[in-house]
Amino acid sequence: MVNIASSVHKLKSACLLLCLLSIAVSGCASGKLTRARDAFYGGQPEQAAAVLSVPEDVSSRDRLLYFMEKGAILHHNGDYQGSTDNLLRAAALMREQDIISAGQQTASLVTNEWLTDYKGEYAERLLVHTYLMMNFLMLGNHESALVEAKQALEVYDDTCPEACANDFFTRALIAHCFEALNEINGAYIEYKNLAELMPDPSPVARKLYDLANRLGFDDDAERFSKFLSESELNRRKRPAGEVIVFAGQGRSPVKIPHNIVVPPSIRFSFYTYDDRSPYLPPPSVGPLAGSADIVTTDVGEILKASLKERLARILVKETARVVAKEAIANNIDNDGLEILIRIFFFLTEVPDTRCWQTLPAYFSMIRVPLPPEAGPIRIKGLGQTVTLPEIDTGAGNGSFYHYYSIRNGMGPVYGAGP
């Protein structure tokens, strides 16, 4: 009897320890991730990047979040190469994580998802490639940007064709990456796909008109010319450069926990996205507002759609976890130990609210053609009016691109490509 009592006591102690450890693991994300996010939104991106000095700053379970958060922070701090290095590691880690860890999955069946490696929502996995495309364009490396564009297309086609269908910003980036390397067939296909997805194709009509003419698609050129004024049609006949601005506004939504309790001790946990920013209209451009094309993505919308697409799988696993816990509890002969185990299961049923928190609420791609008479270009609606540096638009410059990336009131940060 003494040995049995001792065994029960040890088992109770082990359960209590597991309970405390599980709650500690699931209670919050890494403290350094939280401090970096706070510094970033406090207008101190350099300090935010410094907080995340090495990947070992966070738990291995949050390593993907480390690379995504630091990649976004460095991008908006103007360190495009540093951002690229971190986001390429994020992309590599996502590929590794696609090999399921059976041990982690088994452990999460009797605890919670916090014990597993964070793998990212479908939309977050796509947005890693979105940032990489922007980074390479800012660095003037159009070849690598196109590589990322093709990888983004694979994520679209294989992972989230419906959930991410309204990510017009990423689609516009993909099309531009083809165009910038003069792969006009690929560019035309992607711009046309984007036009079919958008409620109003006007923001890409200029591109489709130009490319249709170059490809000899006269019927399509005629169709898209109807979206352009006479002065715009005349302007398209003269080669010109473009200013392309990547604008981020507001803060993306975050996950918040919810629970449903079925007496006496069954607890279902889940999460939803909670908006942190009100609706923000797309930025405006002056004094060339009439000639700017703006394509915008509501990041919150695609995150919520991404979660909805996974909902069936989440419910299946949550149900399996509840069933497994009940089976374990019901097979314990000792009443006291059964109560302890049920308390343990109840307390550790915590929804996994980890997410990429330095994303903006809205991404906009602003394209401004540069005729010879172009003057100062001002971007409004980012917390302040940002005036871009004047660019030489003299005759003979031909087709070229100047890239800027602006987040709320931060920037502009300048990068140029050929």
What characteristics describe this protein?
5-stranded mixed beta sheet; elongated; alpha+beta; 418 residues; 3-stranded antiparallel beta sheet
Topology:
Layout: H1 2-27, H2 31-41, H3 45-51, H4 63-76, H5 80-97, H6 102-108, H7 122-138, H8 142-158, H9 168-180, H10 184-197, H11 202-215, H12 218-225, H13 230-235, E1 241-249, E2 254-262, E3 266-274, E4 284-286, E5 293-298, H14 299-330, H15 335-348, E6 362-370, E7 378-380, E8 386-387, E9 401-407, E10 410-417
Parallel strand pairs: 1-9
Antiparallel strand pairs: 1-6, 2-3, 4-7, 5-6, 7-8, 9-10
Helix pairs in contact: 1-15, 2-3, 2-4, 3-4, 4-5, 5-7, 7-8, 7-9, 8-9, 9-10, 10-11, 11-12, 14-15
Describe the structure.
This protein has 15 helices and ten strands. The termini are far apart. The chain is of the alpha+beta class. It has a single domain (40-417), classed as Tetratricopeptide repeat domain (Serine Threonine Protein Phosphatase 5, Tetratricopeptide repeat), CATH 1.25.40.10. It has helices at residues 2-27, 31-41, 45-51, 63-76, 80-97, 102-108, 122-138, 142-158, 168-180, 184-197, 202-215, 218-225, 230-235, 299-330, 335-348; strands at 241-249, 254-262, 266-274, 284-286, 293-298, 362-370, 378-380, 386-387, 401-407, 410-417.
The Rg value, from CA coordinates, equals 25 Å
Broad structural category = alpha+beta
Q: N-to-C terminal Cα separation, in Å?
A: 82 Å
The general outline is: elongated
Here the CATH topology equals: Serine Threonine Protein Phosphatase 5, Tetratricopeptide repeat
The CATH superfamily title? Tetratricopeptide repeat domain
Q: How many separate domains make up the residues?
A: 1
